[in-house]
Structure formats: structure tokens, C-alpha cells
């Protein structure tokens, strides 16, 4: 914490203690960037990436504790709630857990009394689609782009390969919801090893963004090798399956859960610009508890992304101590679900608590604690005038010793892999600050003691000066026209 004008009482995780009121704080801080300290960053990352936080998975009780920890800090700094009446924005998640193998069944009935009961251990894979799904009907061969065939009361059969199976799976909802099929069998041309991989994949708990959207009837993946050759030939040829029918049954547990974002803000001081917003963001989640490595199963995520979370908390404190306040309003957004597919930022960008069209910039921070000591990558700086802004700010503060460089790994497509992307696709100019991956990326060894805190302090101070520059500039950042057409209008 800052060693000068005031002392915050300790705020411990999971327990709220008293702090000095905002009125008791000094009204002027000569250099608020000095509140960004190595000691603060070390303490914050030590809390966020402690073993007791169990990797901050989305969703999890530990993620809720993380959101509450951030909220306590924002309250202590005097930020206003940025998610309606509170600091926490919630979004829906669906958790599907497959039922036991004995609850899944495929029975095929053919001409002349043929009866084939397939084994869930070797012959088919049950796709978890909802609780107690069952179907019984004649088999009918369709293609995934079939929009005409009457499939009501029938079990549709789709011949798929490893190349088109995803497309076929995506079409099955229309067969069931829209056209009342009794179920679906995807007959797959694949090796037994590939099918075993699918069995393992669908055997895990699956978490997705959004309200529960279960299917009303079973979906099964059946390997070609388990079926009679004559039946496979008819399916491959799209021929009628006269005399063939199936009874399907699957079981899964479906649970509605929630993800959390934490949002705090500071109102701008300029009557004409305070309704424009600069957003600092980072994701506070990581991947939870997983496969043990050297006896350690907790994926602490110190760099990914306790580092960015700690930086946003420090920036919130620094801007709360800045007087006069920046002209534009400042939003401090900690999202979750990044590791699942940028869920929290997607939800915020689609359901913003501040108008997205009035959001002039997103400065996103994801993994700034490792690797080089004198530089940081700013992905996206060629896309808008924010690139020139950060280069000018870095040149104006040589005491920080931080060079801002271009994306060093374009083939890795990091631009699409962190939360700024959901702002960019909505037309908000972005910069994504990042110091690269390392041997501890997504491993239990991403621990707090491996962070370069001195370097991280200088980078966070640079981001403070950048935010101040953007918030006080007479004009808001502008896109490069070609970049806008590619990212916003082209959607890629």
C-alpha cells in the first residue's frame, strides 16, 4: 500500500473490516502513480493465487471469493458500484454432468427380428443433452443440411466423419426442436481410438455460457465398425432403412450456475466528457484444480491472470487518489470465464452496465508478470490512435524503463484469445498488454514467487499514465479504417 497520506485497515479475504472513510482521505495526491507499489502487487497476487483459492475456476466458490475480494478493495478506495446497485454483475452458466454408463442405451431393431443392443463402453457415445432423454422410432437417413424431410416421430441418422461431425451436431437441435425427431444417431467413420476420445470428452462435466438449453431427445455417436456392413452401406448411400428402428435412452444432470464480473467506476470531472468511459479490464479466473504435476494439482494462475487482476486493482486505487479526477469516467472491470471462452467479457460487452457506444477505449491486461524486464507487448496498437498514445506516454516517462513493442507472436492469434476482443468486435478501440507465455503457462507451477514484481510495478505505472492520457485527451481514440472494417464490420 502507499506509504504516505493514509492507512487502510487490513481487508482480509472473506471478511470485511473497517477502513478510513473517503472523506478522511486527502483530496490531493501529487503523484498517484506512487500508490502503485511492488509491495501491493506482491500482496494482491499472493492472495489471488494462494492455494486456498484453488485456481479460481468458473464457476466455483473460490471465484465468488475472488469477486468479493475485488469488491472490498473497490469499496475501500471509494469507487462507485458499476453493476447497477452493486459491484457484481452475474451471468448464466449451464453445467451438464453425464449420467452413469448403465443409464445410456442404444437398441437397434431390424428386419426378420434382428436386435442389436450396443454397449456404452465400446460401441457408442452418449452426448449429454439433458435429464432423462428417451426416444423410440423408425430410422431415417438425413443430411445435416436437410430442411425438407418429415422426421417427426423418427430417429434421424446422419453419416458423419471427423471433419463434419461438429456441423452435424449443430444441426441436430433443428431436427428435434423444430421437427420433432425422437432422437439422433450420428454414425461416424472414425477409428475406435477416435471414438474413445469422444467418449472421454463427453464423459467429463461440461460448462457452457447461457441458460440451460437441453435437447428433448437423445443424441448418440455410433462407430461404423459396430454396425452390420449392409446397414452402414445403406446409411452411407442415403438409402431408406426399411424395417429398422431404434430405442434410445440417455441421462445427464443439468444445473444452472452463475459466473461473476466485478465492476467499479469513478465519475469523470468534465461535464462534457464524463459520459464517455475508459475501461481497464483483466480476467480474474483461472483453470481451477486439474491433473497433478510433480504432486501439485492446484493451477494457481499467478501470472495468468492474478497479475492483470492485481494491476487493475492498483490502477483503481491510483485513479481514486488522482485529483483532479480525469475528464472522462473510468471503469475497472474484472471478468471471469476467460479461460472457458471469454465468457465474462462477452456477457459484459453484450449486456453493458455503461453504454458500449460511449466506451472510448478498453485497456486490457493479461499476463504482465514474467519474461522481459524492460518491455511489454501492446497487441492492437496498429489498429487505432491508441498505439501512438502509448508510444508517446512511454517516451514521456523514460524513468519507467518500459519499451512498448508490437505483437511478437502473430501466428498464435493472441488478439482473439483475451477479453479485449469482445470490446473490439463492438467497435471499441483496444490495447492488450501482455508479456508472453512461459514454461509455467497453465501449469501448477505458475506461482506467486515467480512473478517479476519490480518490472510489473513499472508496467502498471505506465498503464496509469496511459489511462490518464486517454481520459483527458480532447478527442477520443480513432480506429484505423482498414482495421475497423476487418475487426468490426468483418467480424474477424
Keywords for this entry:
492 residues; alpha/beta; eight-stranded mixed β-sheet; 28% helix
In terms of topology, how is this protein built?
Blueprint: H1 38-48, H2 61-77, E1 80-81, E2 88-98, E3 105-109, E4 115-118, E5 124-126, E6 133-141, E7 155-161, H3 165-178, E8 183-189, H4 192-203, E9 206-209, E10 219-223, H5 229-236, E11 245-250, E12 252-266, E13 277-283, E14 289-293, E15 296-298, H6 302-320, E16 329-335, H7 338-341, H8 343-350, E17 359-365, E18 375-379, H9 386-396, E19 403-405, H10 420-424, E20 430-434, H11 453-472, H12 481-489
In words, what does this structure look like?
With 492 residues, the chain is of the alpha/beta class. It has helices spanning 38-48, 61-77, 165-178, 192-203, 229-236, 302-320, 338-341, 343-350, 386-396, 420-424, 453-472, 481-489, and strands at residues 80-81, 88-98, 105-109, 115-118, 124-126, 133-141, 155-161, 183-189, 206-209, 219-223, 245-250, 252-266, 277-283, 289-293, 296-298, 329-335, 359-365, 375-379, 403-405, 430-434. α9 (386-396) links the parallel β18 and β19 (403-405). α2 runs parallel beside α6, α6 (302-320) crosses α11 (453-472) and α9 (386-396) crosses α11 (453-472). It starts with 37 loop residues before the first helix and ends with a helix.
Amino acid at each position: 500500500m502507499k506509504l504516505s497520506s493514509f492507512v487502510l485497515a487490513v481487508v482480509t479475504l472473506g471478511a470485511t473490516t473497517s477502513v478510513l472513510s473517503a472523506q478522511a482521505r486527502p483530496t490531493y495526491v501529487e503523484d498517484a502513480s506512487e500508490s502503485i507499489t511492488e509491495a501491493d502487487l506482491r500482496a494482491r497476487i499472493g492472495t489471488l493465487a494462494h492455494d486456498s483459492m484453488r485456481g479460481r475456476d468458473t464457476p466455483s466458490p473460490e471465484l465468488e471469493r475472488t469477486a468479493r475480494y475485488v469488491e472490498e478493495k473497490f469499496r475501500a478506495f471509494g469507487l462507485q458500484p458499476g453493476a447497477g446497485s452493486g459491484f457484481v454483475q452475474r451471468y448464466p452458466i449451464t453445467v451438464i454432468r453425464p449420467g452413469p454408463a448403465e443409464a445410456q442405451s442404444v437398441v437397434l431393431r431390424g428386419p426378420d427380428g434382428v436386435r442389436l443392443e450396443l454397449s456404452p463402453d465400446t460401441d457408442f457415445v452418449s452426448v449429454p443433452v439433458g435429464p432423462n432423454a428417451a426416444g423410440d422410432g423408425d430410422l431415417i437417413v438425413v443430411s445435416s443440411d436437410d430442411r425438407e424431410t418429415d422426421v417427426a416421430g423418427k430417429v434421424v441418422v446422419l453419416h458423419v466423419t471427423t471433419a463434419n461431425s461438429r456441423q452435424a451436431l449443430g444441426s441436430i437441435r433443428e431436427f428435434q426442436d423444430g421437427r420433432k425427431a425422437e432422437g439422433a444417431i450420428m454414425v461416424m467413420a472414425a477409428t475406435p481410438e477416435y471414438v474413445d476420445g469422444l467418449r472421454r470428452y463427453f464423459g467429463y462435466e461440461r460448462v457452457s455460457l447461457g441458460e440451460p438449453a437441453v435437447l428433448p431427445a437423445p443424441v448418440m455417436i455410433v462407430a461404423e465398425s459396430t454396425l452390420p456392413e449392409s446397414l452402414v452401406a445403406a446409411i452411407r448411400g442415403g438409402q431408406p432403412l426399411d424395417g429398422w428402428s431404434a430405442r434410445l435412452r440417455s441421462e445427464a444432470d443439468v444445473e444452472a450456475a452463475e459466473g461473476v464480473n466485478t465492476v467499479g467506476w469513478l465519475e469523470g470531472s468534465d461535464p462534457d466528457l464524463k459520459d464517455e468511459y475508459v475501461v481497464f479490464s483483466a480476467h480474474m479466473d483461472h483453470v481451477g484444480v486439474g491433473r497433478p504435476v510433480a504432486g501439485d494439482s492446484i493451477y494457481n494462475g499467478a501470472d495468468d491472470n492474478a497479475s492483470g487482476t492485481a494491476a487493475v486493482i492498483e490502477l483503481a486505487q491510483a485513479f481514486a487518489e488522482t485529483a483532479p479526477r480525469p475528464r472522462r469516467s473510468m471503469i475497472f472491470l474484472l471478468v471471469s470465464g476467460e479461460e472457458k471462452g471469454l465468457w465474462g467479457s462477452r456477457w459484459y460487452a453484450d449486456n453493458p452496465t455503461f453504454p458500449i457506444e460511449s466506451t472510448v477505449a478498453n485497456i486490457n491486461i493479461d499476463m504482465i508478470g514474467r519474461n522481459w524486464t524492460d518491455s511489454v507487448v501492446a497487441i492492437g496498437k496498429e489498429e487505432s490512435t491508441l498505439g501512438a498514445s502509448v508510444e508517446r506516454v512511454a517516451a514521456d516517462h523514460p524513468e519507467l524503463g518500459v519499451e512498448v513493442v508490437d505483437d511478437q507472436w502473430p501466428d498464435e492469434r493472441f488478439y482473439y484469445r483475451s477479453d479485449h476482443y469482445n470490446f473490439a468486435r463492438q467497435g471499441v478501440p483496444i490495447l492488450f498488454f501482455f508479456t508472453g507465455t512461459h514454461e509455467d503457462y497453465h501449469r501448477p507451477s505458475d506461482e506467486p514467487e515467480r512473478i517479476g514484481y519490480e518490472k510489473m510495478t513499472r508496467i502498471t505505472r505506465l498503464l496509469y499514465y496511459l489511462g490518464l492520457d486517454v481520459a483527458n485527451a480532447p478527442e477520443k481514440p480513432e480506429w484505423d479504417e482498414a482495421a475497423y472494417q476487418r475487426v468490426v464490420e468483418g467480424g474477424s
